Amino acid sequence: MKKSIKIMLSVLLAIILLVIIAIISVPIFVDPNRYKPEIAAALKEQTGRELIIEGNIEFALFPSLGLTTGVMSVSNASGFDAQSFIKVAASHVSIDLLSLVFEKKIAINEIELKGLVLNLVRNGLANNWDDLFKTASKASISPSKPSAQSMPAEDSLALLAVGRISITDSQIRWQDLQAGDEWLVKDVNLETEAFRFNEPTNIKLSLLAGNVKTGFSAAIKLNTTSTSNNQLDSFVLTHTELQSTLAGQNIPSPSLAGVLTVDEIVLALANQAVKVSGAKLAVADVIMNADFSGVEIKNAPEFTGQLNIAAFNPANLLKVFAIAVPVMQDANALNALSLQSSFRATAESIELENLLATLDDTHAQGRLKVSHLSQPEIGFDLALDGLLLDRYLPPSDKSPKSLASPGAALAAGLSALPVETIRKLNADGQLTFEKLSVRGVDLKGLGFKLRAKNGNVSTQQSAKSFNQGTYSGHLSVDSGNTKPVIALTEQLTKVQLEPLLKGRFKQPITGQLTTTVQLQAQWRSADEWKSTLNGQVNLLLKDAVIRGFNLQKIIDNGKALVNGDAKPADSKNDQAIFSEITGTAIIKNGLLRNDDLVATSAKLNVDGKGTANLVDETLNYQLNARLPPVEPDQAQSPPLLVKVTGPFDNLNYAIDASALITDKARIEKVLDKNKDKINKLMNKLDKKLGSGTSDLLKGLFH
Which residue of 79, 119, 328, 526 is 20 to 30 Å from 285, comparing CA positions? Predict the structure, then answer.
């Protein structure tokens, strides 16, 4: 027994000795350069490509069996230019021979490539690498039947172990000749630790990619740890960090840097699934965190997860991207934005659910969806607590003009948009505001619904509190015609009038307004809709006070003029007070006409009619005022005509004194008061013109 064991050990030692002798002898007695022609011929036969080995092929013995080459190149595909398809300045490959002999495992200790240059070219439908894949596909098909002893592919891969991989000072050039596009990826450096299936491998990659035509460039550094199974259909990446610095066209000067870190990425190719945990992207002062998973990532990708954007300064971000920050009424506006939401994304849609967003002092929650990204369809349902819109408007909008109504503001906004933009608008959703402040007006309980499709836009808006009253309205736009048609219906109930007219009239008008408005217009430009405006208005104004306009004083001035009395003193507090004003109006091509105005006050009864030109904002109106009878049986006094004319912001009030002059009672009063003066005048006329002249003049008044 002992003798048998001794014999076996002797044989084993002999085999090991022979292997060692072979390892030592091969580099000494075999010159690999003798086989250059055979190697080149084999590649030529298989691929049709020329292989040129310029330097010597050398064996290395220590620390492992290896092969080192100098400059090698493979020619380009037929039909492409003469530059090499691939070229290597130097290479080295070493293997663990003992693992191959005793474990029947291919253990590559090290692969080194220096100065690798790879040229990829597309010309129309043809690429300069297609023939290599076709050759590989044919070579993989064996005409003979597979052996019963053949090993499954995954078992074959399991026998492969790769040690360190080093690719340095390399570059890849990509050219699309038909599109005239060219990219150059240079300074490529790849370092990996020893690779074994189901074991983690550290990977480091750095490169600089640039577009030759535009000058855009991206410097990239990647560090990660990768683990894969022996079927190469499952990968796990941990502790991943990707750094990038962008520069060039459309990138703010001098550059834009970003860092992406991911705790873990699990990729299952067989199931077309991916799971990403602990993703964090930092660009400028914006930090985004996300956790998500994806299914059908190859055929129909769909991703779901959570997104969180920490508070950042949007104004500063605009500056980073070299975008001018708009000048706003509030210099501290647009300084804080944050967002968190669950999301669902596909190749054609993005949906945010359970959305919580904060902009400065405004908080919003709800959902947002954008479908058909090529032709976006927007859906939304958002609730905001409060928005002070004025702070985001330009300083030039600090003009005293107030908000006419929500519907009028929407109409003006839509008319300012290009028609093509309206025709492309595709949206369906609603907004609610606890409070919205705009142009100094507070709207509470504001609701807004929008539906836009195929060039038709429809909105519904309402406010539980609008200038101490209520509001509801409906607006529609039909942009299918050459000139779009806009229609607006509004109902204002017990709304304070003064804020609506702020900035439109020099002196404020107060009162409680109830009105219904129906309007329609066409437009091509922002100002054209006024000249095509048509519709009707019903008006009821209670407890009205018109400051700067004192109708009683105007009448008293007329009396003083006729009677020769002193005019009443001017007062800064002149005003006209009416308990109620009613009327209707018809609008045609921007001209508003009213014929049935009735205003009631304690001292005067007033009716009126006239026009208001909404295009140039001028008024041409007349008021008929009557003094109520003092005695029950007293006849009604003749009407006094007051004309109101001029631009809205500087109206002129004037009385027609002819009504006073034609009043016989008033004339007699003037004659009696000035009797002595008139008699003296008549005597002078008799002396100069002849006797009887005074009698003729007196007859005119009797």
Answer: 328
Helices (H) and strands (E) in the chain, counts: 15, 36
Helix axes 664-673, 675-689, angle to 10 degrees: 80
393/337 Cα distance (integer angstroms): 18
H-helix segments, 619-692: 658-661, 664-673, 675-689
Residue 577 dihedral angles phi and psi, to the nearest 5°: -115, 130
CA pseudo-torsion sign 57, 61, 62, 65:
positive
> Identity (one letter) of the amino acid at 228?
S
Per the structure block, which two tokens stand in for 287?
Answer: 């930090």
3-state SS class at 441? strand
Give the per-residue pLDDT at 697: 41
CA distance 632 to 221: 100
Q: What are residue 273's phi and psi, to 5 degrees?
A: -130, 150
Strands 72-74 and 51-53: antiparallel
Beta-bridge partner residues of 645: 620, 652
Burial class, 517, CB count within 10 angstroms (exposed 0-12 / middle 13-18 / buried 19+): buried
DSSP 32: G
Tell me the residue ranges of DSSP E strands in 589-700. 591-600, 605-613, 618-626, 640-647, 652-655
The conformation of residue 505, written as its DSSP 8-state character, comes to: B
Residue 427 half-sphere exposure toward CB, CA atoms < 13 A: 18
What single-letter amino acid sits at 41?
Answer: A
Helix (H, G, I), strand (E, B) or coil at 205: strand
DSSP 76: P
Range scoring the smallest mean pLDDT among 10-19, 454-463, 464-473: 10-19
For the stretch 585-635, pLDDT in tens is: 999 999 999 999 998 887 778 899 999 998 888 999 998 877 666 555 555
Quick check: helix, strand or coil at residue 48?
coil
Residue 259 near residue 279, CB atoms below 8 Å: no
The count of C-alpha atoms lying within 13 angstroms of the C-alpha of 491, restricted to the half-sphere facing its C-beta, is 8
**Which residue from 167, 102, 129, 159 is spatially nearest to 48, judged by alpha carbons?**
129
Rg (CA), the chain: 46
Cβ-based neighbours of 15, under 8 Å, separated by 6 or more: none
| Residue 89 C-alpha from the chain's centroid | 50
Phi, psi torsion values for 61, nearest 5 degrees: -105, -40
**Closest to 67 measured CA to CA, from 41, 32, 97:** 32
Candidates 254, 360, 362, 353; CA nearest to 307 is 353
In sequence order, the 6+-apart residues with CB closer than 8 A to the CB of 691 are none
Position 221, amino acid: K
Q: For 537-576, what is the HEC assignment?
A: EEEEEEEEEEECCCHHHHHHHHHHHHHCCCCCCCCCCCEE
CA distance between the termini of the chain: 169
| In 241-348, alpha helices (H) | 314-320
Question: Are 321 and 252 contacting, i.e. CB atoms less than 8 angstroms apart?
Answer: yes
Distance CA 601, CA 566 (A): 26
Closest alpha carbon to 534 in 517, 515, 521, 553: 521
Which amino acid is residue 146, in one-letter code? Answer: P
Q: Is 414 exposed, middle or buried (0-12, 13-18, 19+ CB in 10 A)?
A: buried
| Beta carbons of 647 and 618 less than 8 angstroms apart | yes
Place 526 in a pLDDT band, splitting at 50, 70 and 90: low
Compute the distance between CA of residue 553 and CA of residue 510 in angstroms, rounded to an integer: 19
